[in-house]
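Lecture notes, continued. The same structure-token format from the folding unit now serves as the input rather than the output. Read the line below as a description of shape only.
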């Protein structure tokens, strides 16, 4: 009770584990808190954890994602190669309209990859496809193994955090833990009111691990993902169901969410004797504009009290933040791709006061939100 940690991190998904890892590398005294007794029980435990670039029109979100992809592939290969199967990832066009784009993506997106023609694809027994792009640096993580390895040697406390209190020299968490700073990495849940302006929402997803007698040494993504086969197991994922309530989303899945994924995989490749080993499901947490949420948290109560004209479009008020509170969230369907770079940026900000990249700072969402409140 007397220890005052430098940082307490709430939430032990990939976001929390990665930021704990980054903080420990910088020599900070930290504690990682989760309501579950082990890490990766939320969205992160459900993830297939494919590490794949984003293909499409060049947009700020695509550039950010691919910057994070390059950082993640290097980070995992260098530090956690046991939990990162660098199988390479073969990307296939979504449909015939998407095919012509595949001749230009490598130049346009500045990604290191190789074009696979029909003959190359046949070598991997891929059916009915004319072109693909193979990214040898991509692959697939062991989500739970990686989270556990990231937090090796870090203090872990099982606690459902419902209350924090600002004291003079520290923040008191659930009347038990003291820390100078707190990072909320609570995924889809947690601290709703404080973060309301960020509009955190959820997309439910399911995926499966299957036994197979087939051999496949690359991972593939078309409109769903197929992992390389390791120890006779292939991962197929994942479904996407937008819903506010996880329980409802689960009911929409109707207990048979994986049939569609199996059918999609059969259209691409023959996987022999596919037999379900385990189902995984969980919530991906996204922001309103699909960019991550990294950095300080605005003191909404203060801002509304001091600047009521904000509601009418006034935009000159200097932002005031809740002291020593930070967020790392909104990773959507790419938590394992985004986490290494976003955790680094957050710790750079906390430790060295480096400005947070405007694309990911939650500030971007505040004024829009304020104008809409009644
Ligand atoms: C089916 C599926 C497939 C996916 N596939 C991929 C993929 O292939 N590649 C990829 O990069 N990403 C994938 N994702 C997305 C990825 O899983 C998410 O982006 C990532 O899990 C987000 O991590 P997080 O740490 O922000 O949240 P979470 O993993 O949800 O972690 C939040 C943690 O906070 C804890 N918590 C919340 N509130 C409290 C509280 N009050 N007190 C204490 N603890 C609290 C929870 O217990 C939980 O452990 C997939 C997701 C799903 C669901």
């Amino acid at each position: 009770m007397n220890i005052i940690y430098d940082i307490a991190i709430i939430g032990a998904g990939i976001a929390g584990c990665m930021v704990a890892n980054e903080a420990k590398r910088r020599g900070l005294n930290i504690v990682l808190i989760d309501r579950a007794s082990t890490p990766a029980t939320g969205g992160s435990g459900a993830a297939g954890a494919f590490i794949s670039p984003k293909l499409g029109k060049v947009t700020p979100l695509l550039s950010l994602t691919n910057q994070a992809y390059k950082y993640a592939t290097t980070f995992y290969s260098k530090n956690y190669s046991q939990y990162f199967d660098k199988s390479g990832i073969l990307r296939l066009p979504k449909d015939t309209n998407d095919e012509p784009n595949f001749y230009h993506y490598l130049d346009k997106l500045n990604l290191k990859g190789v074009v696979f023609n029909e003959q190359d694809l046949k070598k991997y027994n891929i059916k009915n496809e004319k072109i693909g792009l193979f990214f040898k640096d991509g692959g697939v993580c062991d989500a739970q193994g990686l989270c556990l390895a990231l937090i090796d040697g870090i203090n872990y406390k099982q606690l459902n955090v419902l209350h924090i209190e600002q004291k003079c020299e520290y923040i008191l968490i659930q009347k038990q833990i003291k820390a100078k700073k707190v990072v909320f990495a609570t995924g889809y849940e947690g601290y709703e009111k404080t973060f309301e302006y960020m509009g955190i929402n959820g997309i439910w997803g399911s995926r499966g691990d299957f036994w197979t007698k087939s051999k496949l040494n690359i991972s593939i993504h078309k409109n769903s993902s197929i992992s390389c086969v390791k120890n006779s197991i292939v991962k197929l994922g994942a479904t996407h169901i937008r819903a506010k309530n996880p329980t409802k989303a689960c009911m929409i899945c109707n207990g048979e969410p994986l049939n569609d994924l199996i059918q999609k995989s059969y259209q691409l490749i023959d996987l022999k004797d596919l037999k379900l080993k385990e189902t995984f499901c969980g919530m991906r947490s996204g922001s309103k504009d699909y960019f991550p949420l990294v950095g300080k948290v605005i003191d909404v109560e203060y801002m509304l009290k001091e600047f009521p004209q904000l509601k009418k479009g006034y935009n000159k008020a200097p932002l005031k933040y809740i002291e020593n509170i930070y967020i790392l969230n909104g990773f959507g369907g790419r938590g394992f791709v985004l986490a290494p770079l976003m955790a680094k940026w957050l710790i750079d900000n906390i430790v060295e006061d480096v400005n947070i990249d405007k694309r990911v700072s939650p500030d971007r969402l505040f004024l829009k939100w304020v104008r809409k409140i009644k």
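Point for the exam: The mean pLDDT is 94.
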